[in-house]
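Exercise 7b. Backbone tokens:
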């Protein structure tokens, strides 16, 4: 037991482990994630519906999304953005490796008579047949990737875009990093059964990496039949650090905002949104 507690409370190296598939493809957990996505009153897994509507209107105006605009949403979840782009006559592709989310998105598109291409796939493995005018990655998904993964992702964006195509994504700012504290908690059935349909005990260790500006929420879930650990990494950015990563991969940053609804950039903002163009 002592050695297990030592392991639970051990700080790994930044981005040492990558467990996104455990979060998004586990049958129970992915179903719970879908429920959170579809709860329009909270911002836990998706923005609330009012924000999504405002952000869509801004994106359409800012980027110039119209009939036959080719849009790809990386990490599209249950289609909260892809549906709305398609309703504005865009040609839309959604990529996500949560089967529950994609199935829901496909059903919604069918009900609305929308022709959206959905792929149940790890977006690192996505190889499109055509190029896009706009690529989105929303809800700070970019923050969960390691420096190596982010470079791979930006290079993929670059190859997937038409000349002068745009990327829109959002990230957590250094203000978010500064407000978080290191903490360790222990709770039975943490998050009201989010991790399992059966009883479990959960340890949550939050670690901060000051030099790298990274936060880790390390979840150790102890069930009767298994123990598993899920690592939720969050890279935090300044405008300078985010802009440099884009420029290193052949993009020109057009502008920074405080959110993906086009709020003007504020140095006190908890998030940063960026519009960048392929050079």
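Sequence design result:
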């Amino acid at each position: 037991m002592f050695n297990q507690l030592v392991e639970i409370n051990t700080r790994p190296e930044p981005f040492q482990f990558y467990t996104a598939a455990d979060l998004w493809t586990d049958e129970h957990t992915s179903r719970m994630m879908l429920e959170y996505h579809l709860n329009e009153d909270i911002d836990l897994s998706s923005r609330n519906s009012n924000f999504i509507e405002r952000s869509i209107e801004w994106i359409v105006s800012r980027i110039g999304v119209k009939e036959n605009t080719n849009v790809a949403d990386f990490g599209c979840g249950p289609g909260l953005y892809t549906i709305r782009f398609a309703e504005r006559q865009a040609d839309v592709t959604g990529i996500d490796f949560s089967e529950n989310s994609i199935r829901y998105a496909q059903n919604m598109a069918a009900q609305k008579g929308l022709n959206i291409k959905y792929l149940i796939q790890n977006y690192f493995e996505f190889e499109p047949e055509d190029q896009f005018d706009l690529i989105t990655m929303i809800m700070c998904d970019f923050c969960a990737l390691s420096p190596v993964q982010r470079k791979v992702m930006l290079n993929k964006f670059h190859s997937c875009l038409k000349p002068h195509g745009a990327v829109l994504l959002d990230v957590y700012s250094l203000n978010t990093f500064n407000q978080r504290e290191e903490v360790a908690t222990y709770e039975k059935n943490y998050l009201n059964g989010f991790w399992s349909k059966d009883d479990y005990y959960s340890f949550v260790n939050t670690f901060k990496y000051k030099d790298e500006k990274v936060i880790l929420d390390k979840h150790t879930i102890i069930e009767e039949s298994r123990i598993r650990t899920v690592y939720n990494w969050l890279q935090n950015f300044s405008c300078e650090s985010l802009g440099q990563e884009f420029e290193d991969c052949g993009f020109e940053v057009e502008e920074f905002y405080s959110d993906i609804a086009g709020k003007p950039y504020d140095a006190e903002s908890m998030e940063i949104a960026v519009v960048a163009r392929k050079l």
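Instructor comment: The first helix runs from residue 2 to 8. The chain has two domains: 2-27+176-234, 41-171+238-278.
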